[in-house]
Amino acid sequence: MKKFKTIVIDDERLAREELKSMLYEFSEIEIIAEAQNGEEGIEKIKELKPDLIFLDISMPGMTGFEMLQKLEDIPEVIFVTAYDEFALEAFKVNALDYVLKPIDPERLIEAIDKLKSKDDFESEETLSRKDKKLTTEDRVFIKDGEKCYFVQLSDVRMLESDGNYVKVHFGKSRPLILRSLNSFEKRLDNEYFFRANRKFIINLSWIEKVENWFNGGLQVELKSGDKVEISRRQAIRFKEMFTF
């Protein structure tokens, strides 16, 4: 049975102890650390790389949401809080679940079941797709808050880094995904998608025009009218790839 390395982050010691005692009933949960504030949570996440965190929202100094914004690689998140008004915001950051204090044991079981179900699905998907780069022929599922999209990658003209998120541009939509641009670059086939600079990946089939730009770089204009600068280093690679 897979064990999920877990960190409990809450500013109240008694709340941490109560949650840990409940989690000890789940053989698949391995508690590897706890933290009493967001700053300590960030340190332990970077050091220990957990699969899962149970995270309080209202903490002194830094809220749970602010803590997540400072992380590049975010584990699965189950929010545990006394306040229900943050639920919508929690799911906007792709939280796995949102459990209210005092914790109902049945509700905690539901949250852990979601974790196991998601892991089972992703394990099957990984076995079949882990070596496959995504091309313009592929479709991808995107969830942004309450909205869901099933998008043909040929329709995605570019991906834009926006803090800890990536903005996916297709049609008039620009949903946000809580991931790094580097992670998208690894999944996308570079025959179809090109890393223009630190902030943008562009769909090569959308390029309408290319012109020389400052400091040895290039600027491309997409069929949508968007203009994206290709950095000097990437411009060299671009020319090597496409010079006749």
How does this model look, in words?
- The protein has 244 residues and is α/β, with parallel strands linked by helices.
- The chain contains seven helices and 15 strands.
- A hairpin with a 2-residue loop joins β8 and β9.
- The radius of gyration is 21 Å and the shape is elongated.
Kindly state the number of beta strands: 15
Strand order in space, largest sheet: 2-1-3-4-5
Class computed from helices, strands and strand pairing = alpha/beta
Largest sheet: 5 strands, parallel
Q: Tell me, what is the CATH class of the largest domain?
A: Alpha Beta
In the residues, how many domains can be counted? Answer: 2
Cα distance spanning the termini: 54 Å
Assigned CATH architecture of the largest domain:
3-Layer(aba) Sandwich
Query: Which regions have little confidence, pLDDT < 50, spanning 5+ residues?
Result: none
Order of helices and strands: EHEHEHEHEHEEEEEHEEEEEH
Q: Quick one: overall form?
A: elongated
Radius of gyration: 21 Å
CATH-assigned fold name of the largest domain: Rossmann fold
Number of helices: 7
Q: Please identify which CATH superfamily of the largest domain we are dealing with.
A: Response regulator
Task: Report helical residue fraction.
Answer: 25-40%
Mean pLDDT: 89
Instruction: Please state roughly what percent of the residues sit in beta strands, choosing from under 5%, 5-15%, 15-25%, 25-35%, 35-45% or over 45%.
Output: 25-35%
